Structure formats: structure tokens, C-alpha cells
Amino acid sequence: MTTFYQYMMAFRDDKPQDNRSRLANWMYDDHHFPKHAEQYDEISRYIETYSPFLNALTTFDEVWEEYRLIHHD
Known about the structure:
Elements: H1 4-8, H2 19-29, H3 40-49, H4 56-71
């Protein structure tokens, strides 16, 4: 199973043009990000606590829904 972290790594970008890329870059650079987490609540709490930018949690919610549709039944 692909973790959310692994899914997000496809969106990393040297020059992020959108919040999805910004979130992916931050996740990659944050050595404490729960990379193996599979539950929405665990990841959401982490992003809420250590939010890297204003709309990070909203961006996470949007991307999580895409991830859930692709990687979960």
C-alpha cells in the first residue's frame, strides 16, 4: 500500500507553483513528519500543529480526498 507521504512525493517541485507542491516539499523537508502514517487524523493533527503555511490544512484535506479515492476502496 502506498502511504500518503509516498503519494505526495510525486508532487515535489524545486519551484512549487501551487500549495500541493508546497505541502509535498515541506513534508519531505520535515524530518519529523509521520511518513508511515496511514490515518487521516494522525496526519491532520500533525499538519494542524506544525502548519507550514496558511492553507496547508485545506490543501491536505483536498489532496487526502484524491489519495483516498485512488488508494482506498
